Amino acid sequence: QPDDDCLNQPITAMDYLILRAHASLDPNSAETQSQLRRPDESELDYYERRYKSFTWYTCSI
Description:
Helices cover 54% and strands 0% of the residues.
């Protein structure tokens, strides 16, 4: 198992793509919060909302 120093190093351009993509995500940002399942939301409603936001994003590019 890697030590804490290795795991807590900053993410650089040489790191894996997925690490770089998620390194700048703020857990309190509006985008991150909108991707979470809401307490009163059914599983079907959650995935439908995510699908609609994804299709809106891909169609607007």
